[in-house]
Amino acid sequence: MNVGWERYPNERTWPTLSNFTELIERARSVDPDLARDLENEVRDLNSQRKFGLVFERHMPESVNLPGRKVRRGSKVRMLPPRGETTKVDQRVWTVKTLDRDTATLRFIGTDKQVEETEWPVEDLVAVAEFNDTIYPGLVPDGGVNGGDVDGPAHVVINAENYHALEMLTYTHRHSIDAIYIDPPYNTGAKDWKYNNDYVDGNDGYRHSKWLSFMERRLKIAKDLLNPRDSVLIVTIDEKEYHRLAMLLEQVFPEARIQRVGSVINPATVARSKEFGRTDESVFFVMVGSSGPSAVPLGDEWRSTQENRPRRRKSLYWEGFMRRGANPLRSDRPNLFYPIFAKEVDGEPIIQGFGETHFGDDWETVTPPDGCVAIWPIRSDGSEGYWRYGRDSAEQLLSGGYLRLGPWRNEATTPYYVPKGERTKIESGDYGEVTRAKDGSVLVDTMTETGFIPGTLWKLPSHNATTYGSALIKSLLGEKRFDYPKSLYAVEDALRFFVKDKPDATILDFFSGSGTTAHAVMRLNKQDGGRRRSISVTNNEVSAEEQKALIAKGLRPGDEEWEALGIANYVTKPRVKAAITGKTPAGDDIKGAYKFTDEFPMKDGFTANAKFFTLTYEDPLAIQLARGFSRIAPLLWLRAGQQGPVIDDLTDKGYGVSAYYGVVESLDYLDDFIAEVEDKRPGLIYIITDDRRQFQHVAGLLPSGIETVRLYESYLTNFEVNTGRYA
User: What is the rounded CA–CA span in Å between residue 504 and residue 522?
Assistant: First the structure.
């Protein structure tokens, strides 16, 4: 009798109640009496209750690896022939032999009975089962630079999130400040998969499968959060909110947990023979000393007249040099001219403007006596341009709307008052207006009243239809994602916990359309923060789209199939569009951001993003040189995800940036130490199997630099799927 007992080599991994039920059904056709006896035993076990949430923990998920070459000894699943949707045997087989286009497969049953069959190699997919050690790699897959070359980068990882989370325990353990997730709601409408199969409303174990699925990921999330003061934010609807509440209590017994009701659709979603749905639950799991900070809130947050927050009265100045999309001189050569500045009482004052310069010899331009010339040169040394022409700049200056920032190494940065702010000044919105000694405007400002709201959020800005679905359409030019969150709802939820953390790291491992990354960009723009986000999403294609793709003879791993997955079709294009202010078609994004910070969406953000795909490296095929390129992004992530990724150690066997360094060879140790002393990175990776050699190199480094030892067999440093979080 073949019921799959070989999957459970020891008591720790024995099957739970639902697994027994599945096995009973398979046993029934072989021995009905045995099946009946097993059913009675399960009934007795099921009658025993423990205190707290009790659910049937299902076998951990396996993952298909369409990019992995099938070899002798590989674990595989059968696939139907291309273009067919017929169900085939979904058990995991082992490849016994390979003969050109055909593989001989072996399956050992629970009674040690051996089955063998043959199957076309092209109709096999490699599989990683639970407890099969995985060597993850990250392969660069594009990105975008929004003007801040040296700033931190937002990261998007295309991956199965369980393995991505395990990988992140090596780079971000106990260092994540906030996690925001919008997991599958388990509506029964095939909105998520368990062990490669969609879970629908007819699955009798869909609730326990969902809980098993969530528990494994929440355990890792707990390990990632900093234990001092961090928060996990989870949104859910009525289908699972009560089970999720108990699960959170069990995984985070020491945390303070609070539920907030958030109205996301005032028009209601009609439900047959039920009340219409207007809201969802937002759980805040506050770890350590974490708690919501009092923040300035708009009038829409008012609960009582006494709690009404005061209006924001601070003037916003924006950089005068063009950022975001098309920021180079070649894009607008008529806006390349010098601003002449003179030091007066230690402060730079604008004295005038030079002519538009079209040549390459701009450095030879002689400024007036006592002045210096300020050109639109970007932080990476490339030539940019000013936002306005010379005539408009003169008008801004005369109106007090153009000024210079403080001196920095004999250089300064021009700032101007955007049109929206100028309108507020001219309409009297800011009250009395005076002038600074450089002629720039000064306005009355009011101290903003900090406010912590109640547990019912009914805000127009949180409408998921208007500021989720419609906003996605504006960004991408077409509807590409069902039921995205309101951008402002995510922004507001995070603001209470990262307001005073301008360098916070924020993770979303159900990132979907990329709303969390977008919200973090908004928060940074509002207060000049350098927060960075990590977004993890798979490249799943919806159930409906899969039918059409299969009919065309396509499969996961095919270019056309992967192009329509969430990561490639929605998440990465949305992040890129937000930064550049351009749709994927290259058009300016229409409309404007609202509420806390209002400006045209086409202006984009001064932000960077890097995209990666998680790979499952084959240890039999790994060469050291290739292995390092796969882990290089992981080292960069651990070092703070800013600056360039050191993916080539050059002929000298080392690489150093302003943020971290890697050394493998001691042949040029003096050169390496000299470069470290010059750039002063915060972290150095030393690759060696020799403990004494590690200590020797670490002892030569300047004080205050963190050192991490890596083994020379690079990939073994980051092995995952070892059962730590089962």
Answer: 14
Q: Is the pLDDT of residue 25 over 90?
A: no
Could you tell me if 563 and 673 lie in one domain?
Answer: no
d(CA 524, CA 506): 12
pTM of the model: 0.76
The model's pLDDT over 635-645, given as tens digits with 9 standing for 90+, comes to 999 999 999 99
Q: Any long-range contacts for 300-304 (C-beta under 8 Å, 24+ apart)?
A: 300/459, 300/460, 300/461, 300/595, 301/451, 301/453, 301/459, 303/453, 303/454
Nearest to 518 by CA among 480, 490, 539: 490
**DSSP assigned state of 22:** H
Task: Please report how the helices 515-527 and 572-580 are oriented relative to each other, as an axis angle in degrees rounded to 10.
Answer: 20
Per-residue pLDDT of 258-275, as tens digits, reads 999 999 998 887 777 888
Q: Quick one: tokens of 326?
A: 């098309």
Query: 679 and 635, same structural domain?
Result: yes
Q: Is residue 427 part of a domain?
A: no
Q: How do residues 215-243 score in pLDDT, each as one tens digit?
A: 999 999 999 999 999 999 999 999 999 99
Residues 128 and 150 in one domain: no
What's the average model confidence in pLDDT over 320-331?
A: 84
Residue range of the domain that includes 475:
136-308+451-610
Q: Name which of 259-273, 351-365, 388-402, 649-663 the model is least confident about.
A: 259-273
Whether 463 contacts 264, CB under 8 Å? yes
- CA end-to-end span of the chain, whole Å? 28
- CA–CA gap between residue 216 and residue 223 (Å, rounded): 11
Mean pLDDT throughout 612-626?
Answer: 70
Contact 491, 233 (CB under 8 A): no
Domain assignment present for residue 444? The answer is: no
For residue 272, the SS3 value is coil
> Which run of H or of E encompasses 41?
helix 32-46
Give the C-alpha separation, 655 to 640, whole Å.
Answer: 16
Rounded to an integer, what distance in angstroms lies between the CA atom of residue 272 and that of residue 101? 52
Name the 3-class secondary structure at 363: helix
Percent of the chain residues past pLDDT 70, beyond the cut: 90
